[in-house]
Amino acid sequence: MKTILIRKVMGETLREHRMAAGMTLREVSLASMVSLGYLSEIERGHKEASSEVLFSIATALGLSLSDLMSAISTKLAVLEAERAPRGRMVVAA
């Protein structure tokens, strides 16, 4: 079974929210004061962001940190449910 990487789900979620907001990487980078290269690495799931960096990015996207984390948590729960062996129930909180 392939491992679910939180950084990958986090990056995908950030990219989706950025695109939904109609913002470029550069715009989010400037608004969040996170370097363009680092932001790109986070979105691609290659780097893990600290809570401070996530807060800055979420704010730049017009999200609260709790809303961002909730979206990530929901995606993780879906992935876990899809990968759970038959007969084993995964409970999502």
Automatic annotation (TrEMBL):
Q: Which Gene3D superfamilies match?
A: lambda repressor-like DNA-binding domains
**Keyword field:** DNA-binding
Domain HTH cro/C1-type, by residue range, is 14-68
**Protein name per the record:** Helix-turn-helix transcriptional regulator
Q: Which PROSITE patterns match?
A: HTH_CROC1
Pfam annotation, one family: HTH_3
